[in-house]
Amino acid sequence: MHYDPVKRFLGSLFNRHPISRKLFYRLLDILLLRSWHLHKALRAYRSSVPKDREVHVLDAGSGLGQHSWYLARKNPAWHITAVDIKEEELESCASFFSGQQLTNVVFEKQDLTSYFKPDAFDLVLSVDVMEHIEEDEQVFSRLYASMKKGGLLLISTPSDQGGSDVRHPGGVSFIEEHVRDGYAAEELKQKLQKAGFKTIETHYTYGKPGSIAWRLSVKYPISLLNRSKAFLLLLPLYYIFVMPPVLILNKLDVVIKHKKGTGLLVKAWK
Length: 270
What we know:
This protein is of the alpha/beta class and 270 residues long. The chain has helices spanning 3-14, 18-31, 33-48, 66-74, 87-99, 136-146, 185-195, 208-227, 235-255, and strands at residues 56-60, 79-84, 105-109, 121-127, 147-158, 199-205, 263-269.
């Protein structure tokens, strides 16, 4: 499945005007269940730190910039460093954020396998990034070295229980750009411990409600867009019908504690 070309195609459409880009970010927050789980974790973190405290954040693999946008607007006093390896996306994000006068975000082209800034960050985000990087242990070590003592690392990634929509051994990933289909919770915990993290919590996401919602809101539309970009004209009508059940299913997935799921949300403290 060619996921990245479709993502770039949609990004090119919505990035033509600031208003459409803001709408795109809002749609991503609504449609992508990982954003629901991430925002819940970020609200808990925000409530744990004093309102007047300066917080330094690393968005490690910032992509389209939606998570930096969310953080920058919710927390104007926070300082956010957004790094990615894709120069075109970084330039687009930097131009948009500058135009919106969001001066608390800096975008940098960096390779996470070599980047680190010693004892610099209170909070590090890694959202759907590690499944794209072969040298994951090297990245975890770099992130650990870049964090302040007591800092929090938040990871969202597919699990080995059907992540990337792989349902059986030897199955093909829905997103062919992934270098791994997903992590076992214990495997990821061990790799983080090896990097130096002591306190680690793993939570399954995308349980039964979330898996159904993901198919309705992401998989089926992306599959159809891969066949023909003309389907874009029918997307508004499609989402009118599927959004009510998707919103309900996403909410259920966030409030239910799952024994298993196709996604993982991990919290690791230095």
